[in-house]
C-alpha cells in the first residue's frame, strides 16, 4: 500500500498541472453533490415561504380554490409518545426544558429544514394547530363544510388556507389529496398512526389516510375579514328609512342566532343578512342600504337569544353579514358591440394590482378588458378579452406593463395604477416564482442555506446561484417601478392616476373615477354590487407574512429615493403625491 502511495506522489510531483486539475474536479464534484442534496427531496411546498399579500389586499390578481404554496406550522401535542413523533416527523427529541424540539443536522436535507420551519412558524404565528387523526365516513362526514380535491399538488397549507379564507374553524386532509372544512368535528378521534398517507404535493407531510382525517384547528385573527362560518361580517348599520324596499324579505326569529339568519337569507338567495334583535332581514346592497356608513358596534351589542357570544343587533341598528350567495347584478360581461374609437390603457408596474383592477372594471362596466400580452391562466379564469389582439377595439381597456415612449403613445388615454413599491415588488416576485396566487419558495428569497467559505472561494459562480434571486430582482425591478410612472406621466395622453391603496380604501369612489374615464354610464347599484364581489378569483391570502423583512438597509435607501422621485413628479403635475405609508420604512 505504501509503495502504491509513493508512486502516486511521484507521479503528481512530476505533473503538478494534472494534480491541481484532479483536485479541482474532486472539489467540484463534492460541491455539486452538496448542492444537489438541497434539491433532492425538496417538498413541493416549503415551510418557510413568503407572503406578499401581507401586502394588504388583493394582490396582482386574485383565487378561490387554492391559495398558495406555503406551509403553516403543524402543532404537536405533548403526549410523550416520542417514538410516534419520531416515526411521523423525523428525529424529534425532547429538550431539557420539556419542550419538543428537532435535532436537525446542519445539512439534514430539505425535509429537515421544512420541519424546522414548521416549528418556528407554529411558535411565532400559531395560525393552525394539529389536533389529531379522526374517522371519516362518506355517508356522514367528520367535517361538513366545503371540500376540495387536488390529486397532484395537495399540501397541508393549501387545505388550511382554503378553509381559513372561507371562515371555517377546522381543516382536514384525507387520502393524501382531499381537503374538508367545517365548524365542528363530528367524528371519533383515533390514533395518529392511522393517518399515514403522504400529501400528494408535499413529501414528508401527512395528509390523513384511508377514511381518516388529519385535522387542524385554524387560528383566525384577521379583524378586517371577520367571519361567522362562511358569512363575512360587514358591520353595524343604522336601520334604513324604507325598510321594506331596502331589505324586502323579513322573518321573525324569537330564538335568534347568526346561523339562523344567515341560513335563512342564503336559502332565499340574498347576499345580505341583517340581524335586528328578533327579526332577520334579507336583501341586496342598494342606494337605500349602501353599507358605506358604519356605526359603532356598541350600538348593535345586543346578545343573540340563542348564542351567548354573538351580537344580533337591535330594531334600530342592524348587524349585517354577507352570505355566500353571489350578487348576479354585476356578473354579466360581453365584448363591446362595436369597435371602440379609442384605445385606453390600464397601465401599471407588474405586481401593482392590474388583474384585480381588470376584474373590478369588468364587473362595473359589463365589458371585457383586453391585454397587451396573452396569459392562458387569466383566460381560463374568465378574462375572455385576453385572447383578442390588443388593437381589436372589442375591449373596454387594455392591460399593459409597457413603459417605452412608442408603446405609451399608441394609446389615446390611460388609467395609471400605482402601488407601494415595497409591496408591488414582493407581489411580482411571488407571481414570478409562484404564479398569480402562489408564493415564491424560501430558497428564492434567501437561498438553500449556507455554503462553506472554502467552496465560496473556489466556486463563486456556483455559490452565487444559491443565495436566492431576490436581491438581483430588486436591483433590476426597483428602478423600473419609478421609470414606469415617470414615462407614463411624460408621454401619456389623458392619464388618470389611481393609487392602489386608495382603490382598496375607497373602492366606490375610485372605481367611479375609472369608469368615467372609460366613458361608460354605470348605475350606482351596479357599483355597490361590485363592492360585494370585489375579491374575484385572483387573490393571495392575507393570512401569511414573511418571518423577516426581505429589504436590506441598502435596498430601502434606494427604493426611498425612487419614491421621492415619483412623489415629486406627481406633485409637479398638480396631482396627489404618493400615500404616506410608502415611507418611511
From TrEMBL:
It holds the Pfam family WSC. Keywords: Repeat. It comes from the Eukaryota. SMART domains: WSC. This is WSC domain containing 2. Belongs to the WSCD family. Residues 127-219, 230-324 form the WSC domain.
Amino acid at each position: 500500500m505504501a509503495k502504491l502511495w509513493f508512486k502516486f506522489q511521484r507521479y503528481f510531483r512530476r505533473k503538478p498541472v494534472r494534480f491541481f486539475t484532479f483536485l479541482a474536479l474532486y472539489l467540484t464534484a463534492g460541491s455539486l453533490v452538496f448542492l444537489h442534496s438541497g434539491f433532492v427531496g425538496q417538498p413541493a411546498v416549503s415551510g418557510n415561504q413568503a407572503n406578499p399579500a401581507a401586502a394588504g389586499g388583493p394582490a396582482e390578481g386574485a383565487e378561490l380554490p387554492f391559495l398558495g404554496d406555503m406551509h403553516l406550522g403543524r402543532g404537536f401535542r405533548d403526549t410523550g409518545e416520542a417514538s410516534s413523533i419520531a416515526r411521523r416527523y423525523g428525529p424529534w427529541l425532547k429538550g431539557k426544558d420539556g419542550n419538543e424540539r428537532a435535532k436537525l443536522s446542519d445539512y439534514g436535507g430539505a425535509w429537515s429544514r421544512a420541519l424546522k420551519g414548521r416549528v418556528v412558524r407554529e411558535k411565532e404565528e400559531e395560525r393552525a394547530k394539529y389536533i389529531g387523526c379522526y374517522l371519516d365516513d362518506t355517508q356522514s362526514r367528520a367535517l361538513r363544510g366545503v371540500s376540495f380535491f387536488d390529486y397532484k399538488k395537495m399540501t397541508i397549507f393549501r387545505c388550511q388556507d382554503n378553509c381559513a379564507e372561507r371562515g371555517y374553524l377546522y381543516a382536514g386532509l384525507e387520502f393524501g389529496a382531499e381537503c374538508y372544512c367545517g365548524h365542528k368535528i363530528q367524528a371519533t378521534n383515533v390514533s395518529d398512526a392511522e393517518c399515514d398517507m403522504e400529501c400528494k404535493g408535499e413529501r414528508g407531510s401527512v395528509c390523513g389516510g384511508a377514511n381518516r382525517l388529519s385535522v387542524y384547528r385554524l387560528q383566525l385573527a384577521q379583524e378586517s375579514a371577520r367571519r361567522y362560518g362562511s358569512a363575512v361580517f360587514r358591520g353595524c348599520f343604522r336601520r334604513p328609512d324604507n325598510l321594506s324596499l331596502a331589505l324586502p324579505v323579513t322573518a321573525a326569529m324569537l330564538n335568534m342566532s347568526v346561523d339562523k339568519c344567515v341560513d335563512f337569507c342564503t336559502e332565499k338567495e340574498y347576499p345580505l343578512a341583517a340581524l335586528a334583535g328578533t327579526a332577520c332581514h334579507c336583501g341586496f346592497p342598494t342606494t337605500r342600504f349602501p353599507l358605506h356608513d358604519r356605526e359603532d358596534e356598541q350600538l348593535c351589542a345586543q346578545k343573540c337569544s340563542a348564542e351567548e357570544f354573538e351580537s344580533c343587533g337591535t330594531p334600530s341598528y342592524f348587524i349585517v353579514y354577507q352570505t355566500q350567495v353571489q350578487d348576479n347584478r354585476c356578473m354579466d360581461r360581453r365584448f363591446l358591440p362595436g369597435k371602440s374609437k379609442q384605445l385606453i390603457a390600464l397601465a401599471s408596474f407588474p405586481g401593482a394590482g392590474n388583474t384585480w383592477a381588470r376584474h373590478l372594471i369588468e364587473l362595473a362596466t359589463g365589458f371585457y378588458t383586453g391585454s397587451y400580452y396573452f396569459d392562458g391562466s387569466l383566460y381560463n379564469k374568465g378574462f375572455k378579452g385576453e385572447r383578442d389582439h390588443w388593437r381589436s377595439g372589442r375591449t373596454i381597456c387594455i392591460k399593459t406593463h409597457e413603459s417605452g415612449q412608442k408603446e405609451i403613445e399608441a394609446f389615446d388615454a390611460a388609467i395609471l395604477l400605482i402601488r407601494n413599491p415595497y409591496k408591488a415588488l414582493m407581489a411580482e416576485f411571488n407571481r414570478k416564482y409562484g404564479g398569480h396566487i402562489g408564493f415564491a419558495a424560501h430558497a428564492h428569497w434567501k437561498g438553500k442555506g449556507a455554503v462553506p467559505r472554502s467552496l465560496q472561494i473556489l466556486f463563486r459562480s456556483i455559490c452565487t446561484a444559491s443565495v436566492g434571486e431576490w436581491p438581483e430582482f430588486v436591483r433590476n425591478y426597483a428602478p423600473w417601478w419609478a421609470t414606469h410612472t415617470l414615462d407614463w406621466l411624460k408621454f401619456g395622453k389623458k392619464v388618470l392616476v389611481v393609487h392602489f391603496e386608495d382603490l382598496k380604501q375607497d373602492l366606490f369612489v375610485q372605481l367611479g373615477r375609472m369608469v368615467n374615464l372609460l366613458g361608460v354610464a354605470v348605475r350606482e347599484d351596479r357599483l355597490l354590487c361590485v363592492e360585494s364581489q370585489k375579491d374575484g378569483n385572483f387573490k393571495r391570502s392575507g393570512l401569511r407574512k414573511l418571518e423577516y423583512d426581505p429589504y436590506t438597509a441598502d435596498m430601502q435607501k434606494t427604493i426611498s429615493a425612487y419614491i421621492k422621485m415619483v412623489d415629486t413628479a406627481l406633485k409637479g403635475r398638480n396631482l396627489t403625491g404618493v400615500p404616506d405609508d410608502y415611507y418611511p420604512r
